[in-house]
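hiii so um. not sure if this is the right channel but i have a protein structure encoded as tokens and i wanna go backwards to a sequence. like what aa goes where. can anyone help
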């Protein structure tokens, strides 16, 4: 490809806020980590991740082939990456390879992410169970003697982890029940609570999970000290349903709900006339600076209601109650509020972080399928940034799980860079391509669909620049397709695509910048010829 002087700035994912705990299964080969893990995951309704599987999927080869071609050292390197990615997830049942705990520091990070259960059995029993698996690289032709030898060498490492669970002579069901009980006893019930520094005066508190609205009365009281009244501003599609629930919980918190004030559904709300109407309504209702705005709806409703809160009475407090996947995964956290103007999206806006975000994942049940699906692209984007080897988990996980991961990822980048001047730009992964596709298609390709196509293109560009694995683009595409998202760009006029990139370049101060997947997260690359970059829209 034609490449000018390409410069790359690494955007390494910062530490993530703690989520719900993982259940981590460790132990010698043959102790049943995968079988127990899969059954425990089903029982707990959590996704299951087998780090050996994630290595074979990411490398496109079996563990034995990797061992044969790259020796044990090569395998351990991939294992370390898979364990590190698993440690960045939350609420996941993780079965680890038998050798994973040998990397003590790496495994310690995974162990800190949740509850570790170390499955155990004696050498004779393990040799019996492994009877059919002598092709395992470390056992090759060694038989029971080799099992005993390896087990003895590794036992101190497993013992040091604690959490031992005996499997010998016990039924599978009993082993699974015990692992599940240990997890449940240390996993707090109810929605997850996070606190994020977003650059505002107070941190943004976040409650995320099914049923979060009904459990938010005390969080509302804590986040809005001194507030007696709050204006409820809601997207028209949710005013009678989710906004009514919000008004009820405000009353339970001792805060009088004012309104609800309805907004035109979707993007039409982000208009200066709608903003002015909100100012009028707040004024007529006699809202004073001690009041708050509670925004209920998708990203569009949150953007305009947030802008009204930022500007009314020189700024009053904001609570966001996102009701779309995109708004939960992206728009509700991070402080950006804006309206569209003169035909330009988000032309006029400010930073005004919410003091509280209530992400009740059950509100997504009423979403039109296309709106729901388009939000999933942002979740996949976040997984590419924080745990690329574990990407495939997204394909079968619940929506609540995906939103939890996306919110934690967004929180990490926003806390590290609240004003979006540096590392937070990683969150634009896929978006340069997406904006070009939206613009060149006259917005007939929806934003979420364009982001999906853009993520695959960004991974292809990253691979062409040698910044990420060549296999990543296909893996991202497979997951997105499984979620019903498009991954191939429609036929678009190349001159329109180039024009869109040129407009982006002007906005970015003279250089088209792409975010591509890179070790540890992403990298911002500039200096790539636009035509060559657009070639990444095709395999
Ligand atoms: N501020 C930020 O950081 C940020 C980040 C990303 C996107 N955004 C903005 O978000 C907007 C897109 O947000 P979106 O994808 O949520 O779309 P949206 O707000 O336009 O909502 C999409 C549709 O879903 C309907 N809807 C919302 N919740 C519903 C529910 N629970 N049940 C049924 N219908 C429901 C709406 O009426 C609308 O028709 C864009 O304007 C974008 O600029 C802002």
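sure thing!! here u go:
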């Amino acid at each position: 490809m034609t490449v000018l002087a390409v410069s790359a700035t690494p955007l390494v994912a910062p530490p993530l806020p703690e989520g719900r705990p993982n259940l981590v299964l460790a132990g010698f080969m043959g102790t049943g980590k995968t079988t127990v893990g899969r059954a425990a995951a089903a029982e707990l309704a959590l996704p299951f991740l087998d780090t050996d599987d994630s290595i074979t999927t990411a490398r496109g080869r079996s563990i034995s082939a990797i061992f044969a071609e790259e020796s044990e050292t090569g395998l351990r390197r991939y294992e370390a990456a898979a364990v590190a990615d698993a440690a960045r997830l939350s609420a996941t049942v993780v079965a680890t390879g038998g050798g994973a705990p040998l990397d003590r520091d790496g495994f310690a990070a995974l162990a800190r992410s949740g509850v570790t259960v170390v499955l155990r059995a004696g050498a004779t029993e393990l040799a019996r169970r492994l009877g059919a698996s002598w092709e395992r690289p470390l056992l090759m032709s060694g038989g029971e003697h080799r099992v005993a030898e390896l087990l003895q060498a590794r036992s101190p490492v497993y013992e040091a982890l604690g959490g031992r669970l005996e499997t010998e002579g016990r039924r599978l069901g009993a082993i699974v029940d015990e692992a599940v009980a240990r997890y449940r006893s240390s996993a707090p019930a109810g929605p997850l609570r996070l606190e994020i520094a977003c650059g505002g005066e107070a941190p943004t508190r976040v409650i995320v999970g099914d049923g979060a609205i009904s459990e938010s009365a005390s969080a509302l009281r804590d986040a809005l000290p001194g507030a007696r009244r709050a204006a409820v501003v809601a997207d028209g599609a949710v005013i009678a349903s989710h906004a009514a629930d919000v008004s009820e919980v405000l009353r339970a918190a001792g805060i009088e709900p004012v309104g609800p004030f309805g907004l035109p559904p979707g993007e039409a709300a982000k208009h200066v006339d709608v903003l002015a109407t909100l100012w009028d309504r707040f004024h007529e209702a006699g809202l004073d600076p001690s009041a708050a705005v509670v925004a209920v709806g998708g990203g569009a409703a949150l953007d305009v209601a947030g802008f009204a809160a930022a500007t009314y009475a020189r700024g009053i407090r904001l609570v966001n109650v996102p009701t779309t996947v995109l708004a939960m995964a992206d728009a509700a956290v991070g402080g950006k509020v804006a309206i569209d103007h003169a035909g330009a999206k988000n032309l006029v806006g400010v930073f005004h972080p919410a003091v509280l975000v209530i992400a009740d994942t059950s509100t997504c049940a009423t979403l039109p399928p296309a709106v729901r699906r388009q939000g999933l692209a942002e979740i996949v984007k976040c997984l590419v940034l924080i745990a690329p080897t574990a990407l495939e988990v997204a394909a079968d996980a619940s929506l609540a799980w995906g939103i939890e991961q996306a919110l934690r990822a967004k929180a990490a980048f926003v806390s590290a860079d609240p004003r979006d001047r540096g590392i937070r730009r990683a969150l634009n992964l896929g978006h340069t391509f997406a904006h070009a596709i939206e613009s060149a298609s006259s917005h007939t390709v929806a934003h979420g669909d364009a982001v999906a196509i853009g993520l695959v293109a960004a991974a292809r560009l990253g691979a062409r620049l040698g910044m990420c694995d060549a296999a990543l683009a296909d893996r991202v595409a497979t997951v997105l397709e499984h979620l019903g998202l498009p991954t191939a760009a429609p036929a678009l006029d190349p001159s329109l695509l180039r024009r869109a990139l040129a407009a982006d370049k002007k906005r970015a101060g003279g250089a088209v910048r792409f975010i591509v997947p890179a070790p540890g997260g992403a990298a911002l690359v500039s200096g790539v010829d636009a035509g060559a970059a657009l070639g990444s829209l095709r395999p």
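oh and The CA atoms of residues 322 and 328 lie 5 Å apart.
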